[in-house]
Design brief:
With 173 residues, this protein is α+β, with helices and mostly antiparallel strands. It contains five helices and six strands. It has a six-stranded mixed beta sheet with strand order 2-1-6-5-4-3.
């Protein structure tokens, strides 16, 4: 009985050690946030300068990009195929962050953000998730959204009504 109890205690000690969660110091969180900001700024700059490979190398292999159109929900391969003609012309798109909030998960391996962007479409919002792969932050998920003043939502709904109906029919809804 003592032997069984001893094994049980040892197993419980190992389990408690395995589930101990890392908590980052404020200094490390600040450094990680700065690193994420640099990745995002470089990513936007690479699009503006049509640097195709660096732009897509900043994304994970299974990343998702969601654009402003309801049909734009791309995996990395599809997003590359869509984007290639824009990059080949010498400038894809120019997004400049004018405000950004970055949050780092307490294990330091995942971060998420939201940002306001100055774009050719006007002010847009970007948001997403980054993961750390071999000490490098990579974009796992990105969502680009148009901002619409609340007082203009009825006008936007009217503009979208016909296209939304066609999109829903195509989806079988």
């Amino acid at each position: 009985m003592r032997l069984v109890l001893s094994y049980l205690v040892v197993i419980l000690v190992f389990i408690s050690c395995e589930t101990k969660q890392t908590v980052l110091t404020e200094k490390v969180v600040k450094i990680e946030k700065e690193s994420v900001g640099i990745v995002l700024d470089s990513w936007h700059k690479d699009a503006a300068e049509a640097n195709f490979d660096p732009y897509f190398n900043a994304m994970t292999d299974n990343s998702i990009f969601i654009g402003t159109d309801a049909s734009e929900n791309w995996n990395k391969t599809n997003f590359k195929n869509f984007s290639k003609p824009f990059f080949d012309k010498g400038q894809a798109w120019s997004f400049i962050a004018i405000e950004r909030n970055i949050y780092v998960y307490n294990d330091g391996k995942m971060a998420w953000f939201d940002e306001l962007l100055d774009t050719w479409m006007g002010v847009c919002r970007g948001s997403g998730v980054l993961v750390k792969e071999e000490n490098t932050w990579k974009i796992e998920h990105y969502v680009l959204s148009l901002t619409i003043p609340n007082e203009n939502i009825q006008d936007v709904k009217k503009v979208n009504k016909a296209k939304d109906s066609l999109f829903l029919i195509r989806l079988g809804k």
